[in-house]
Design brief:
By secondary structure, the chain is mainly β. It has 1 helix and 11 strands, in the order E-E-E-E-E-E-E-E-E-H-E-E.
Amino acid sequence: DVQLQASGGGLVQTGGSLRLSCAVSGFSFDDSTIGWFRQAPGKEREGIACISGEDDSTYYRDSVKGRFTISSDNAKNTVYLQMNSLQPEDTAVYYCAASRRITSARSMGIISLLAPWYAYWGQGTLVTVSS
């Protein structure tokens, strides 16, 4: 039974930082990709970062490049999203998801941030950035 548990959200001021965690159980990272998505009120869900277990490659949405960093601890089956220089427009519910169809974020590029490619989803964690 595949399960993903996202945590670490909260309230932070503009310019602050948060680290989200996604604990994964029920399958191996080795041949899968874990992605972070977010959905702001009234907006569609968007993929923002992902990491592939096969080659440790990553891919980021342009709006978060240089501010967010995705990493994994395979021993703990946990993926992290370090978020720095947070802005009010980063306010959203953040979700982590898993895909066995995406084997390399580097080679698949923007496709690796598309929600339909992910079969397994965790519950969201709310991030609120105050101005």
